[in-house]
Amino acid sequence: WMKSHLAAAAVLLALGSVSGCGGEAEPTEQQAGSGIAVTDARMVLNAVAGRPAAIYFNVSNSGDKPVTLRGVTVKGAGAAEMHSYQEWDGQMVMGEMAPLVVQPGGTTSFEPGGQHVMAMQVAPDLQAGGTTEVTLKLLGGGRHA
To answer: Model confidence over 49-78: pLDDT tens digits?
Structure first.
C-alpha cells in the first residue's frame, strides 16, 4: 500500500502584494526530505481583500526515486490548491491540477501563467512583508522530519 504523508519541511514564504505584477520577495530554500528542495518561494497577496493569493516556487528532486506532489496546505489560509492552466472548449482556463510527479534530477516551477498554488480565504493578518508556512503533501511511503 502507498501511504500518504506530509513533507515535514514547511516552506516559509515571504509575502508580497500585488501592486503591479510582481511582489518579488527574498528567495527561500527549504529541504523537504527524499531529495526534494524548494527554492524561490513567494506568496503574492491580492490587492483586493477577500481574493485568493498566489504562491510560486521551484521544486527539485535530487533523490533517486520519483516524488509525487499531491497537494498543499498554507498556514493562514482556509484552503489551498495546486492549479494549472488547461484547454477547455477551445479556451485556456485555470483549475485544480492532478498530482505532479517530479522525476529524479528534475525540477519544476510554479510560476505566474503556469502551475501555481492558490490560497483561498487568506487571513487578514497575512500582510505584505510577512511570512507564512506552506507544507507540500507528498505521495509515498515513509515520513520526513
So the answer is: 889 999 999 999 999 989 888 888 899 999
Under the banding of pLDDT at 50, 70 and 90, the label for residue 26 is very low
CB burial string 112-135: b at 16+ within 10 A, e below: eeebbbbbeebeeebebeebbebb
Say which residues have a Cβ less than 8 Å from residue 68's Cβ, sequence separation at least 6. 99, 100, 101, 102, 138, 139, 140
DSSP string, the chain: -PPEEEEEEEEEEEEEE-SSS-------EEEEETTEEEEEEEEEE-SSTTSPEEEEEEEEE-SSS-EEEEEEEETTEEEEEEEEEEEETTEEEEEEPPPEEE-TT-EEEE-TTSSEEEEEEE-TT--TT-EEEEEEEEESSS---
